[in-house]
Specification:
The complex is a heterodimer. By secondary structure, chain A is an all-alpha fold. Among the domains of chain A are: 216 residues; 105 residues, no CATH class; 54 residues. Chain A is built from 16 helices and no strands. Chain B is mainly α. In chain B, 47% of the residues lie in helices and 6% in strands. In chain B, strands 1-2-3-4-5-6-7-8-9 form a 9-stranded parallel sheet. Chain B is elongated. Classes of the chains: A mainly alpha, B mainly alpha.
Chain lengths: 720, 501
């Protein structure tokens, strides 16, 4: 129940309050969002004010009371007044009921008292009458005993009198009671009247009350309306004032806008005129231009028409021509058709010919393939022969090479000797033997080319294959210079074992690829993969591996009976292989039975491999792998080699030698002179010796010793 | 325009008689705009008038030709109108209502006569306007608010009450009421009967007490003075909620006889059984019927553990302490909210037993013991009970011979109790000191709104001060009612402020 007046005042205050400090959103802004924002803020402020007022601002109650509007005050006053009126009215009305009630209560009390008295009285009466009655009845008894009529009469009279008295008493009582009843009747009637009077009064009062209340309500309504009217008037005047102010402002603004607008309109009109003139001019120019264009276009149209007619004629002519051509072409077509038929016949003939040809060629092909096969076998044989001859050639070559080399080396050594002599004896310089690589070379150069492990493998396997194929053949893998102690077979077996056991080193993808391949190829590829994994790259490594295997075996398996017994068949095999491969150079040691690879238990293979790999790691790095597959001997270095042999004594040395020669010539001259001089000298010496002997004789005489200064110390004895 | 005229022309004759209705209604149809309906003979049938008009065009139709006596501007009513009229005419024989369109239903209902037999209309017509017409026709004053705002319900309730009022046992045929039962069973919620006529048994010189009586009086001689047995009727009414009965005769005037006001034991037993069987009953009033202790006990016994009963009014009877004890027992065995034992003969023991029941009760809202005689003993017992009771709001102890001791106890109660809103102690002997004590008690109370102490011998000063306190309480209560969501403290503060100003 916030009084509207105070609210308005507050609101205004709030407005002022809001207007001064916050520049932010205003209600008169042009942007709708901002306006909404401003309104929201205002509502929030109002709510806040209301809450504050409701909560705690009763401290300045008087102030707010003054603030309350007239209408509100009037309303409260009227309400209180009316409530009082109603209360009083109902009290007035109910007073009748209360009065009736209290009357009734009093009546009841009185009635009770009277009733009690009456009852007492009746009881007394009953007692007394009972006494009297008893007396009478006693007298009746007495009367029965009386014999004298007079007495009896008297007594009867007395009895009668007594009875009458009793009855009279009773009657009196009855009349009293009746009188009481009568009065009660009257009382009842009075009460009824009173009641009706009460009811009349009640009705009257109720009516009066209704009237009063209505009147009061009307009055109060009037008052309230008046108050509202006054307030409304005030509000209206204030609003009117505001409105007028706003209107004035509005009018002023309107005027301003109007003038502004008029100015603008004038401006616009001017601009419009300008625009119009400009447009007219432009229009004219454009029009002229367009007319010119039209003329040009018309000309062009005429031209086009002319060309069109020309073209039409041309086309007609063409059409005619084409028609004729068409006819011609139809003729040609028929000709062509007949030709096609002919050609079809030819084609059929050719087809049959072709079939024949195909058959013929097939036959030819078969014969050729058989030829080819035969040639292949021949070729293989040839290859074997070539290989054989190559070996022989090699050997011959080697022998010749060795011979020549020996010769050359002899020469070189002689030259070196000479050189040395010259250097040491003649020049007095220390001589160092030149250390050329070719000097140590024995045999043909680059014969010792290292084979890669795979090649070896291939060879080993090939050999095995050939062995399997032609066991009896005289030269199975003879060209293979296997290392010293290990037979090819042993190697092969070891490799097989390795291949079987270390399948984990091979990639699974490779395995799947290998499936369809030949057994040997399969082994080859597998071993290749394994070797690449192990890091075995060349021959030496491979032999090391094999060697390692054998040695490992020798170390770890104790010499037992088993060994010989198991090895014996192998031995035989080896021996056989040796006999067969007698061409291969073998040291006699090799003939001793090598430890059988069979003895290597498959479970040991991995251990051996591990040990091998750890051992192999160290000496690996220094050698760059020379992986050149050389089937044909490289003779480029041969000439170099031989040339190098010729130039064992460098040109400087030769020059030296020449110079030395001349010098020596000179020296020889000197020497010959010297020899002559020497001869002279020797003769002189002989004289000298003779003289000396003489001197000696003199010196050895005892006199000398006795001399103060011995002559031996004065002059020297010449030494040789 | 047209329609209203029709209804008026229809409804007018229905007031007088049905024989003229047909004539005038047919006449009314034809001559709606005609100046005098008496000219019915001169008016031609509508077809005739339509003949020339259709040919002459719209403009000519409007013209009135003075010479042509047969000319009429009346337009033929629509066929729907005609049909509706027919339906209205034959509604009694062939009631067609539900099949019609809503607007047509409305028209029919507007034109129906309120005199139609109830057997036709009772279960068919729901329209309030029709029943309003029925009510206003039969009764000059109608307070529809007292009947739940429903005219139909009001009609049936008043009709039934009328029948019951004028029922004379063993003379009137019970079928008169029972035949109405299937028609009104769904609409009657309340029965308020303020008189039950006894069977006619008196010799001719004493008759003529009632119009309806005298008209249908026979030579029947029966010893019993039992009244109408409500059992069958009440059992049939499925929505009955209120039953207000007075076993007595109104307007007997000088024909007063004690026999007219006899509430016999058979009546009592049958009424008890009836009330017990009616499970929907919420309000039961039996006033001015000379119910003494035994009858009250019979009735209350049947009301024990009644599921719905909320108000029991046994005022203006002859109930003494035993009856009051029975009522106290009822308080503990029902959901009674209002108990009225005004103007009985309850004394201190009865009041004590009521107080005992009240101390542990949480249903009773209003207790009226006006014009009994409970005296100080009973008053003190009730005051003690009020110290523990948390439910009672209205207590009337007017005219009970109470005095100062009760007032002292009540003043204590006033300072403790916060539920009581109205106490009436008028017409007692409270005295000056008691008034002062009550004033002290009032000074601590914030809930009491009414405190009647008229004619109880208190000083005017204290009465005035108590009035002031009540005024303040009323203001506070008004504030609370106006703004239930508001904080309590400002509201009360405001109230005080207003009072001060």
């Amino acid at each position: 129940m916030n009084p509207p007046g105070s609210l308005r005042v507050l609101e205004e205050k709030e407005k002022e309050h809001l207007a001064t400090p916050t520049v932010g959103p205003s209600i008169h802004s042009d942007i709708p969002q901002e306006r909404i924002q401003a309104r929201r803020l205002r509502i929030a402020a109002r709510l806040e004010a209301r809450r504050r007022e409701a909560l705690g601002e009763y401290l300045d109650g008087k102030e707010s009371e003054e603030d309350q509007s007239k209408s509100y005050r009037q309303k409260e006053e009227s309400r209180l007044k009316l409530a009082k009126l109603l209360l009083c009215g109902t009290e007035l009305v109910t007073n009748i009921q209360v009065a009736a009630d209290i009357r009734e209560v009093h009546r009841r009390v009185e009635e009770e008292e009277i009733k009690r008295q009456r009852l007492e009285k009746l009881e007394n009466e009953v007692k007394t009458s009972q006494d009297k009655f008893d007396e009478i009845t006693v007298k009746w008894e007495e009367g029965k005993q009386k014999r004298i009529p007079q007495d009896l009469w008297e007594m009867l009279n007395a009895q009668q009198v007594h009875c009458a008295g009793l009855i009279e008493d009773k009657n009196k009582l009855i009349s009293e009671l009746q009188q009481e009843l009568e009065t009660k009747h009257d009382q009842y009637v009075k009460d009824l009247k009173k009641q009706s009077g009460d009811i009349c009064l009640l009705l009257e009062r109720m009516e009066e009350q209704v009237k009063n209340v209505m009147k009061a309500f009307r009055q109060e309504l009037q008052h309230i309306e008046n108050a509202f009217e006054v307030e409304r008037q005030e509000l209206l005047t204030s609003n009117k004032k505001k409105w007028e102010q706003a209107l004035q402002a509005h009018n002023a603004k309107e005027m301003e806008y109007l003038t502004h607008r008029i100015k603008k309109v004038e401006d616009h009109e001017k601009q419009l005129n300008k625009q119009r003139i400009w447009d007219c001019e432009e229009y004219n120019t454009i029009k002229i231009k367009l007319e010119q264009d039209v003329q040009i276009l018309e000309q062009q149209l005429q031209q086009m028409k002319a060309t069109y007619q020309l073209n039409q004629e041309k086309l007609e002519y063409n059409f005619q021509v084409l028609k004729k051509r068409d006819e011609e072409s139809t003729v040609i077509k028929s000709q062509q058709k007949s030709k096609i038929n002919c050609l079809h016949d030819v084609l059929n003939n050719l087809r049959s010919k072709y079939n024949k040809q195909v058959k013929q060629f097939q036959e030819e092909n078969q014969s050729l393939t058989s030829d080819y096969k035969r040639l292949v076998t021949q070729f293989k044989e040839m290859q074997k022969a070539i290989r054989h001859f190559a070996l022989i050639d090699d050997k011959q070559f080697r022998e010749i090479w060795l011979m020549n080399e020996e010769e050359a080396k002899d020469l070189i050594s002689r030259a070196f000797d000479v050189d040395r002599v010259i250097h040491t004896h003649h020049l007095g310089l220390p001589w160092t033997a030149p250390d050329f690589w070719f000097l140590k070379n024995v045999g043909p150069i680059s014969q010792q080319q290292r084979k890669s492990a795979t090649q070896i493998l291939e060879e080993v396997l090939m050999e095995a294959e050939e062995e399997g194929a032609e066991e009896a053949a005289s030269e199975p893998g003879s060209y293979l210079d296997l290392p010293k102690q290990v037979s090819a077979k042993t190697t092969r077996k070891i490799l097989m074992l390795l291949c079987d056991e270390s399948g984990f080193l091979i990639e699974s993808k490779l395995l799947s690829l290998l499936l369809p391949l030949d057994k040997n190829e399969c082994y080859l590829l597998k071993l290749d993969a394994i070797f690449s994994a192990l890091g075995i790259e060349n021959e030496d490594d491979l032999y090391k591996l094999v060697d390692f295997f054998l040695r490992y075996q020798a170390h770890h398996s104790a010499p037992s009976q088993e060994r010989t017994s198991v090895a014996s068949p192998l031995e035989k095999l080896d021996l056989q292989g040796e006999k067969e491969g007698s061409l291969v150079e073998r040291e006699p040691q090799e003939k001793q039975p090598p430890p059988s690879p069979r003895l290597i238990h498959p479970n040991d293979v991995l251990k051996i491999l591990e040990a091998f790999v750890t051992g192999l790691r160290k000496p690996r790095d220094f050698r760059a792998p020379v992986k050149l597959l050389k089937v044909v001997r490289d003779d480029s270095k041969d000439s170099e080699y031989w040339k190098a042999l010729t130039t064992v004594i460098p040109a400087t040395t030769l020059n030296l030698w020449d110079a030395l020669y001349t010098a020596l010539e000179k020296y020889h001259l000197v020497l010959t002179q010297r020899a002559k001089l020497l001869i002279e000298n020797s003769s002189l010496e002989r004289q000298n010796t003779e003289l000396q002997q003489l001197l000696q004789q003199y010196v050895d005489s005892k006199i000398n010793s006795e001399l103060q200064v011995p002559p031996t110390q004065v002059f020297r004895v010449p030494t040789k | 325009m047209e329609e209203t005229q029709i209804t008026s022309s229809l409804s007018f004759p229905s007031w007088s008689s049905t024989s003229t209705q047909d004539q005038s209604s047919t006449a009314g149809q034809a001559s709606i705009t005609g100046p005098q309906p008496s000219k019915s003979s001169a008016i031609p049938p509508p077809v005739k008038s339509k003949g020339p008009s259709s040919g002459a065009g719209v403009r000519r139709m409007r013209r009135i030709i003075a010479e042509d006596a047969e000319w009429s501007v009346a337009i033929v009513p629509l066929l729907t109108e005609l049909c509706i009229q027919h339906i209205v005419k034959n509604f009694q024989n062939n009631p067609i209502l539900k099949q019609l369109l809503p607007e047509h239903q409305k028209k029919v209902l507007n034109q129906l006569s309120p005199d139609l037999p109830l057997a036709v209309t009772a279960n068919l017509i729901e329209d309030e306007n029709y029943w309003r017409r029925c009510c206003t026709q039969r009764w000059p004053v109608c307070h529809v608010d007292e009947h739940g705002g429903s005219w139909k319900r009001m009609f049936f309730e008043l009709h039934l009450e009328n029948l019951l009022k004028h029922f004379i046992p063993s003379t009137t045929d019970p079928e008169v009421i029972l035949s109405l039962l299937p028609l009104c069973r769904n609409y009657v919620h309340t029965i308020r009967v303020d008189q039950f006529l006894p069977p006619v048994q008196l010799p001719p010189p004493l008759r003529g007490r009632d119009q309806s009586d005298s008209s249908s009086e026979g030579e029947m001689e029966e010893p019993a003075t039992d009244h109408y047995q409500l059992g069958d009727l009440v059992a049939g009414l499925s929505h009955l909620e209120e039953l207000s009965l007075v076993y007595g005769v109104k307007d007997c005037g000088m024909n007063f006889e004690w026999n007219l006001f006899l509430f016999t034991y058979r009546d009592c037993h049958s009424l008890a059984a009836t009330v017990k069987a009616c499970h929907t009953l919420k309000i039961f009033r039996l006033t001015r019927s000379k119910v003494d202790d035994d009858k009250a006990r019979i009735l209350i016994c049947s009301l024990l553990d009644h599921a719905a009963l909320e108000e029991l009014d046994l005022s203006h009877n002859l109930i003494g302490d035993r009856g009051a004890r029975a009522a106290a027992k009822l308080l503990g065995h029902s959901r009674l909210r209002v108990l009225n034992l005004a103007n009985n003969q309850v004394r201190a023991p009865g009041a004590q037993s009521l107080a005992h029941a009240l101390a542990h009760n949480s249903n009773l809202v209003s207790l009226n013991l006006r014009l009994n005689c409970i005296e100080d003993e009973g008053g003190q017992a009730l005051a003690h009970a009020l110290q523990t009771n948390k439910c009672l709001t209205t207590l009337h102890l007017g005219g009970n011979e109470l005095s100062e001791p009760t007032a002292t106890l009540l003043s204590q109660v006033l300072s403790i109790n916060t539920t009581l809103t109205s106490i009436n102690l008028s017409c007692n002997h409270i005295g000056l000191d008691g008034g002062k004590q009550l004033l002290e008690g009032m000074s601590d109370n914030k809930s009491l709104l009414e405190f009647d102490l008229r004619l109880s011998g208190i000083a005017q000063e204290s009465e005035y001060l108590i009035g002031q306190a009540l005024c303040a309480n009323r203001e506070a209560a008004r504030q609370r009612a106006l703004s239930p969501s508001h904080f309590m403290s400002p509201a009360t503060a405001k109230g005080h402020e207003n009072l001060a100003g």
